[in-house]
Amino acid sequence: MTTTAAIHPTTATARLPNGPGWDEGFLRVESYLRAHHTESRVLLNRLTSEIIDAAWKQAPQFPGEEPVELAMRVAHERIGAWLEGAGHPGDWSEVRVRTRGRLALAVTGLSGRWAGQLFSTHPVAPEFATELAAATLHPGPELSLSNMPTAPLEFGFDDAAATDLRKTGGWSLVRGAGWSVGLIGLFGLVWAQTH
Amino acid sequence: MAIVRFDPAALDPDEIARRRHRVFLLVGAIAGPAILTMADLHWRTGYDGWKSLHLVLFTILFGLVALGAAQTLVGFFVRRGAGDPCRITASLTAAEEENTVAARTAVVMPICNEEVGRVIEGVRVMYESLLRSGRLADFDFFILSDSNDPNRWIEEETAWLALTQRLGAQERIFYRKRRGGINKKSGNLADFCRRWGKHYVYMVVLDADSIMTGDAIARLAQLMERNRHVGIIQAVPALVNGETILARLQQFASRLYGPVSAAGLNYWQLNGANYWGHNAIIRLSPFIRHCSLPELPGEGPFGGRIMSHDYVEAALMRRAGWDVWLATELEGNYEECPGNVIEFAQRDRRWLQGNLQHARLVAAKGFHAVNRVHFALGILAYVASPLWLAFLVVSAVIAYRFGAAEVNVRAVPSFADYLHWSYHTQAVLLSLFTLAMLFLPKAIALLDLRARRAELAAFGGWGDLVGGVFLETLIFTLLAPVLMLFHTMFIALTICRKKISWGTQRRGRAGESVLAESVSAHWAHTLIGVAGAITATRIDSTLALWMSPILAGLIGSIPLSYVTGSWSAGEALRREGLFKTPEESAPSPVLVELGAALAARRSGPQPSPELATHYGLLQAVLDPYVNAVHVSLLHAKDELPPASEARFVALRDRLLREGPGALAPGDRLALLMDAESMNMLHDAVWSSPAARLAEWWRLALRHYDVIAPGPETAFSPKGAG
Q: In this structure, are residues B43 and B439 in contact, taking their beta carbons and an 8 Å threshold?
């Protein structure tokens, strides 16, 4: 099993691979680690150097692969190893597992309370490890499905008016009609008398 | 003195009928004499087809004016003293208002490509306000996204997670993005109801620009708890956060005239009120059982999917036997409004299409008469514009014929015999009466404020208030004909099934007017104004004088639209104390917090222009955390996209080799919705040599170089709260 020590820089690398491909690999790995919010330049440089060194050593086993591909594969292994050491086990060669690991880091809130923990050479805080292991997204409560039947729609007047009428005993409708007829009648009368 | 609590369940149906008859009679009493006078004017010169049409148009339009005036008059009288006893807010005693809410309530905010910062900060301030009020325990928040703009979508996801982390609200504030946007907002809410409706007793529905204090949200829930026969309570929100002249003018007018008008509305609506789609609380169980929208028979514009859902849901709720009330005096309840004329017209276009469709529902079985009235008034609110235009044209034709034929006033029995009015005096008096009825709501609102000293001071005192009313009247008078032409065009386009677009909806600083846009939207109005002025002057100089406010508004529509949509002009008026509202004078803490948070967000860094167009995709693919969150949220979905894997392989390959610009928007969205593709793209971009990647990806990767400033996400150290 890989331990957290695997990602910790242990020695200053005396002999590093060179050439444009390895330069690109170095830059890519360094950028990727930085994208994880590793802010310490010293830590970034040392981690990246180690990863490139390891990738360079693996190169003969993967003759068809470009340095960037080799370096990123090692970078994923190292990140996985660190997460495993921090209490988040999994098969880190699996792309979905790696995603879950990154999600755990995002949910735990590396940018806030646990800033500086990521890839730290010190053992991770037990609270951080606990949170990391339990980290999950809650986009919603448990589903509890309801049937929402479409309201039927028919056309034509009816009924609710009749219901209203029953409630009011019809008297209010008669009164309303009386007022309306009275008002219109009044205006009609005025018109008839003056024209 | 014993506290009299209103019990809506015991409301006497006779009292409801009496109130509606009174308002109806008042409308008749106002409109009747005016209509008779107009009929008499035509009688004195002899009827023909034009004059008959003129009278019909006048009757409809004056009826609407009279309804507004009557409603305001009634509102004024019921607001005196202790106010209307029959209002839902009077159903709680002061002691009951202090109680905690014992029912689970979901506060839901459906969004679609809205400004994410505004949405997130809005949710935050409401959440914290509920927390401070000690009533958070029974409330959950839901951001229900239908966004199909990848930039907005990805920003929503990251901002939501950052918000929950910041507030420690991982199981209190939820985010759901629908895969498709079926049935728009009503479909969005229905989807929530189907998934999680059973968990909650009530649902407080908000718009993306709604803000409510914790107390207001809790009070709505308490009102529902107290009144178990009520299905929906609609709160009347105050307009806030306006910066341009138009936005500040709307919030001033709505704040000044709104309370009196709302009191009048409640007077006759009572338990048959309407639902406006937001700032309302809904009882979920009957809503789920009875309010799923049916499709209308036939195709658009009058058939198919119901576009304007709120009125219909209120009618369905009433049909099922549940009451719907308007809460007229609920403090701490706000929304925002469009900042410029074009935004205003765009919003009207959406509402207009929906309201016209309700024409079918006026004759649907089972609805209560009051809901049919709501549908009819909703339609008339927009149909009034072409009717007004027709009225102006017919008036001009009659004036032309009058002049050309040298028609004399006939010696026939008429009102003139009794009132001794000349034809001219009678016409002038009728015009003055019409104007008086139009301005009555303004005068009454001022009168109403006379007894409310604190509120008057919050408006800036009589000087600022009267100045504001004068300027508001002037600007709305000039804008009215512009909106009339907009509405008329929209109705014609809707009937002809044509679409029109001026780009995406903009709010906040982005909602400021743009000169080119103003010219593009109003050049035709200007030409119509000029042509109208020439024609009216040729017919009769008096006619031109009468029509001058209308013609001036049209001729000056471009500068008017541009200036009223300007922030700097709005700020200048604010400095002068004009259009001040109580919400501006003494803003609620939630508004202050929201304003400060948005100002801080606006000053944040922006992505580089080359990457900005597809910045959401960039982050979802490249950023390790954004990618993980996005993929995880996709996994949380209960269905997979039907597209074949072969299609996705080809799309991924093209995206990597040619960049996002080479893909159609639908293809980019399809990739973003496929968890497998997003996982693979993240690995592929980071692991591929630059030579195999499109220039766009190489540029995107450079943003993660140690010497470059890091891309800004809600998870970045700088971006995290």
A: no
Average the pLDDT over each of A111-125, B199-213, B291-305, B598-612 and give the range with the smallest value: A111-125
Burial class from Cβ neighbours inside 10 Å (0-12, 13-18, 19+) for residue B393 reads middle
A:B CB pairs within 8 Å: 232
Q: What is the pTM of this model?
A: 0.91
Enter the tokens of residue B502: 């001026």
Q: Residue B358, Cβ neighbours under 10 Å: how many?
A: 25
Q: How far apart are the C-alpha atoms of B26 and A174, rounded to whole Å?
A: 18
CB-based burial label for B599 (10 Å; 0-12, 13-18, 19+)? exposed
* pLDDT, tens digit, 9 for 90 and up, residues B209-246: 999 999 999 999 999 999 999 999 999 999 999 999 99
Choose among B393, B642, B414, B515: nearest CA to A195.
Answer: B414
* Full DSSP string of B25-88: HHHHHHHHHHHHHHHHHHHHH---HHHHHHHHHHHHHHHHHHHHHHHHHHHHHHHSTT--SS-G
Please count the CA atoms within 13 angstroms of the CA of B275 that sit on its side-chain side.
30
Minimum-distance CB partner of A31 among B291, B689, B704? B704
B302 touches chain A (CB under 8 A): no
Alpha helices (runs of H) in B197-308, residue ranges in sequence order = 214-226, 245-269, 284-290
Nearest CA in chain A to B415: A194
CB B208 within 8 A of CB B118: yes
The strand order across the sheet containing B139-145 reads B173-177, B139-145, B105-111, B202-205, B280-283, B230-235, B323-327
Rg over CA atoms, chain A:
37
Degrees (nearest 5) of the Cα angle A100, B695, A17?
Answer: 70
Task: Collect all residues with Cβ–Cβ distance below 8 Å to B10 and sequence separation of at least 6.
Answer: none
Among B164, B190, B215, B370, CA closest to B284: B190
Question: Rounded CA gap, A33 and A49, in Å?
Answer: 12
Widest Cα–Cα separation across chain A: 116
Residue A171 scores a pLDDT above 60 = yes
pLDDT at B354 over 50: yes
- Is any Cβ of chain A less than 8 angstroms from the Cβ of B168? no
Q: How far is A15 from chain B (nearest CA, A)?
A: 23
